[in-house]
Predict the 3D structure of the following.
Amino acid sequence: MTGGGAYELSIVVVGYNSRYDLKNCLGSIREHAGPIAVETVVVDNDSVDGSAAFVRQEFPEARLFENGANVGYARAVNQGIRESRGRYVLVLNPDVTVHPGSLGRLVDFMGEHPDAGLAGAKLLNPDGSIQDSCRRFHTFWTLLLRRTMLGRLFPRSRALARYLMRDFDHLKSREVDWLSGACMIARREALADVGLMDERFFMYFEDVDWCYRIWKGGWKVYYVADATMEHAGARESAKPGISRQLLVHVVSLFHFYEKWGNLIYGAKRYWGAIRTAILLASDLVAINGSFFLAYALRSSLKGYLLRPMFGFGLYTRFLIFANIVIVLGFALFGLYGAKSRRQTGADLLLRTLRATLVAAIILMASTYMAAGIGYSRLVVGGFAGLVVVTSTLLRVLLEWFHRIVRAARFDLTRAVIVGTGEAAVRLGGRILAHPELGYDLAGVIETGGSTRQSGFPVLGGLSELPRLVDDQRIGEVIFADPDVSYDRMADFLLNARRSHVDVKMVSGLTAILTQRARIEEFLDLPVISFEREALLRAGAAVKRVLDVVVGGLLLVLWLPFLAVTALVTGASGRGAPLRTVPRAGVGRRPYGMRALKASDDAFRRFVLRHGLARFPAVLNVLRGEMSFVGPAPLEPDATAGLSPRESLRFDARPGIFGLAEVSGASGGSDGDPIALDAYYVQNWTLGGDLALVLKWLILCTTGRCPEGAASGGPAGRVSRPERTGEDA
């Protein structure tokens, strides 16, 4: 956010099909700017009435920014503020007409009241009467009066009059809870502390939220009686009947109370337990529904099978037992609780499959121990298979619905970053770049140990963090300053246990910690213990056996495609369909990786996007030079200069695809691929490989396989190791 230039005041006006209003508004600014240096910034939200062309022609002194779509009022206001250069910023609706002396009076008032974060002029209706432009914050009763028929039944309600502040003299300036967004002047220092408008509010309630945050940030909001402007517009959402504006207003209302309401905040603090209850209910539906379906399918086959089918009543005890065993199995395999929050569809399917397999073995054994009752093994087996499918599908549907909710900017985790240095700013930028993670970044906390950077609201100091957690409705605290002592973090963690806030720490220790690191007691001292690396000895042997078995099957399936490729490349006059490119394998030993030639552009794009270009490397897998999953294969010349941790990649066979590539293609990571490859080697598990295979198959099936992937392009130390199937 820029500012502090030669202008005393920047005026930001957002227009949407507002040509007539802009004529009056900008004309009054031009006429009544007075002696103060004023710049006008107009942001047009894709108007179709010629507003932008009109402003460009009639008001060339205004700086005009045209959006290609209606991005919403709050976002457009923020755009204008970022482009403005004045000491103060005045946000005006296009249907506001400036009266003589009012701009100068607002600027003078801000100078006279250094505690003023926001202030607003007295607004008049076209007939000269005073508008209700300043309000007290909502209560449940005032919401009912404003948004239901009760307001018409009780038009003189004392609560409504108090909310609209009709109980004070509007000819006198005073502090107020919040102001109408039609006219608000902001101090840049206050905006640096609390941030700009919240862009989740497309329209309406962005002014209430802004004022609320100004008060929470330690600033004040003022109504300035001796600065007068005329506001012609009537709020569309206040008109009787159902309209689009009313629906937008209601959505914004929900956004505000989802963000600041005590009831919803309380529910969020126990969201882990609520989420587990929802998943448990979903699994119980899947378990019992699967059993009824399995029983129905077995009953439909009784005319074709020799064994008799017992009545459903005999399965009642078995079904109760099955519910208990499967739910316990799901719990043991991490399908509830904190671990389940980070699972993708592939992870979920694998965990469900393993948990159900263990439960099925127990259930099968129980059928043999049931005295005098011959449970159908076909029912039990089909039931187990259906549980895997139905429970996974229901969970995927719940996750899909949750993504829709978050895409609408609901159920966001309000987070704060501890630190204002480079690491904190970089982390904040990544959070903002990934809205699908569902974070609402409230701001940063100064620690005194890092250089302050701009770009994010500074909420306070480290000593204020416990108070800010409750005051700002924080759900997650992320420590990103290496200078914060472990003692201070430990003290906060103790408080966090009572306040139900999640805590993350960005630390250099992650470079050495693996999933096999654990805290244990040694000589009466807490120590971190590291187990041996995952891909040594037994782990490598298991991985190799799977590579050979799967590689042999894929080679048979690949031969017809190789024949087609040979015909295409032969017809193009490019010779054999395969070529060999040099790569560095285990222990940096060089080998020749098989790569696919592709001639026609359309054919080349097809084989690349669907992962078919990688198939020749199956030959390297069978020869023991590569694996299906592993670090990216590097050129021999690119192996020099790697750090000891980066050189971990040479402890494992290079992969046809790997963690860095799958994570990047699915949007799950924008981190360093070299570091991700090292992490993979340190944390290898068979389940992890299976999850990566499933994710990779999904990418290939949907045509989203990265083109910079595995068969022979340059693969040096770049932003993402290349594995391309194109000719070098």
Observations:
- Residues 236-241, 709-728 have pLDDT under 50 and may be disordered.
- Residues 254 and 410 are 9 Å apart (CA to CA).
- The longest strand covers residues 220-231.
- The radius of gyration is 32 Å.
